[in-house]
Amino acid sequence: DAGITQSPRYKITETGRQVTLMCHQTWSHSYMFWYRQDLGHGLRLIYYSAAADITDKGEVPDGYVVSRSKTENFPLTLESATRSQTSVYFCASSESVAGPPTDTQYFGPGTRLTVL
Amino acid sequence: QKEVEQNSGPLSVPEGAIASLNCTYSDRGSQSFFWYRQYSGKSPELIMFIYSNGDKEDGRFTAQLNKASQYVSLLIRDSQPSDSATYLCAVNIYPRSGNTPLVFGKGTRLSVIA
Question: Residue ranges of chain A with pLDDT lower than 50?
Answer without folding.
Answer: none
